[in-house]
Amino acid sequence: MSDHEEEKIFNLNSLRISPVTSEVEKTFNFDDYVAEKVNHVNEALDDAVPVKYPPTIHEAMRYSLLAGGKRIRPMLCIAACEAVGGHHSAAMPAACAVEMIHTMSLIHDDLPCMDNDDLRRGKPTNHKVFGQGVAVLAGGALFVLAIEHIATATTGVAPNKVLAAVRELAKAGGAEGLVAGQAVDLSCTGNNQNVELETLEYIHLRKTAALFEASVVLGAIFGGGSHEQVEKLRIFARKIGLLFQVVDDILDVTRSSEELGKTAGKDLAADKTTYPKLLGLEKAMEFAEKLNGEATEQLADFDREKAAPLVALADYIARRQN
Amino acid sequence: MSDHEEEKIFNLNSLRISPVTSEVEKTFNFDDYVAEKVNHVNEALDDAVPVKYPPTIHEAMRYSLLAGGKRIRPMLCIAACEAVGGHHSAAMPAACAVEMIHTMSLIHDDLPCMDNDDLRRGKPTNHKVFGQGVAVLAGGALFVLAIEHIATATTGVAPNKVLAAVRELAKAGGAEGLVAGQAVDLSCTGNNQNVELETLEYIHLRKTAALFEASVVLGAIFGGGSHEQVEKLRIFARKIGLLFQVVDDILDVTRSSEELGKTAGKDLAADKTTYPKLLGLEKAMEFAEKLNGEATEQLADFDREKAAPLVALADYIARRQN
């Protein structure tokens, strides 16, 4: 399926509310699951970036990486690993790597020459604390560390699997992934009269969905998933990635900075095109429901119990309040 | 050998002029060699970064990558591949990757929040043309592309070799390589009363020698070199990397901007610590000769004809005028 065809999946011609997944949820305690796994991830991240010489750069990396984010990408990675029958420990290097890349993109996005943001995860942004030069370097170093971590912390795994993971990460982080999304986003800011739904989706599929995709695909690869499973999870992740961004746009107009832990109303202030702006709040919320339903449909052939964490994560992303 | 022991190699207790290598040079036309190989590299780099959507980011990547640098790292990579008996084509993906990483470091180093340079390779710097936001993104994207290129353009090569190459690149580009060098350099600028020779070497071993090392090691790996050959070439590259920087410092005080294709006298203007400043010009030049001699000694057990390009490159780096 070409990029173009895949993107058409998200067209808005047939908005409808998808069936919710409460039946599966009943047998699975999401809060306990997340609490346990986030703990594991935070410990692994702490171990992965020791304080070394030169201290400033390592402190800057740790400052943003260990700032207590929601760890949604590591969760998706681990849940995908489990959905194909793997043990969560097999996904841990990949879970750390995707969070490092995510943190890199946050540090760079917040720079004055990008989105110019002072607040992130309830704390001053990296460049506010360490200066712009160190922030640029720390962001870059986190991407490099992600690659290094995946290539070194996966001993015992077949090299061709590790290489496949490296390729996925590079695709997600590069000029056709994260960077493409950020570049188009940057070029649209302050020039919004021409931003259409197609462009908005282009941005979000790259800025958000690409790394969701890598997270889930890496989890499935290291969990021993089949090619068919990996490709179904890839589509699941793209839809969930777009869903995440639609919800983010909705929260920006409906919540306060205090509730979000970052500057609220920023999209409106910057006259940024968002789903609520293009579709109206109600239709944007309907679109979110639709994406959630379509994503979980991809999991129909998976073991229901093993896939429960992924289903619950999709629901969490759809219904989160910050 | 630990990092500490390796660094002691470069102590200045026994400055002496090393034997020159003119005997080997006589049988080898360096200019023809470089002209032919640089052509191959430039074509491969052009192919590796096509103009795609979004255009700005790809144009920014191409602007700096195809700006006609000396291609010393790709040359070292190819020459190392040939020194162990490989064909230059086996080193081409690695040669492109190391030049991409080098270009990333130049784009980021030139940013206003780093060295704040307006001129590079005789042209306005990346951020002067495309803006700081795009320059940060283009630099990052070049690193990602380097990894992706090495992981995808090496079909037919054993995956464990490719993974070893990925690890080397990540080590060279990350928080203990390039980024460490730039971070310490940044922290020293404007605070030079305390910069000693040890710190200066720390910076250059990471800012310059680490990527020289990766270039040569990757060339040797893809050329089919033995472990012993790879490790000898690793030491060769570290010494040549430091040599390159000593010569760079010397040229900064002895040449004009026009001759260099970049701003001259910049180190002096910024009150930056350099080898000429710490050692005096003559001792700095002697140190350069010494490093050149020690580097080429590492090649004693290599086939003389096959290693001739490496020897000539070391001499070129020692004697270059820009």
TrEMBL record, chains A, B:
InterPro entries: Isoprenoid_synthase_dom_sf, Polyprenyl_synt, Polyprenyl_synt_CS, Prenyl_diphosphate_synthase
Keyword hit for 4Fe-4S: no
Coiled coil: 278-305
Cofactor: Mg(2+)
A Pfam family the protein falls into: polyprenyl_synt
GO MF term set: geranylgeranyl diphosphate synthase activity; metal ion binding
A cellular component term, taken from the record's GO annotations: cytoplasm
Keyword annotations of the record: Coiled coil, Isoprene biosynthesis, Magnesium, Metal-binding, Transferase
Pathway membership: Isoprenoid biosynthesis
GO biological process: isoprenoid biosynthetic process
Stored PROSITE patterns: POLYPRENYL_SYNTHASE_1, POLYPRENYL_SYNTHASE_2
CDD domains recorded: Trans_IPPS_HT
PANTHER family the record matches: FARNESYL DIPHOSPHATE SYNTHASE, GERANYLGERANYL PYROPHOSPHATE SYNTHASE, CHLOROPLASTIC-LIKE
Similarity-based family: Belongs to the FPP/GGPP synthase family.
Name of the protein described by the UniProt record: Geranylgeranyl pyrophosphate synthase
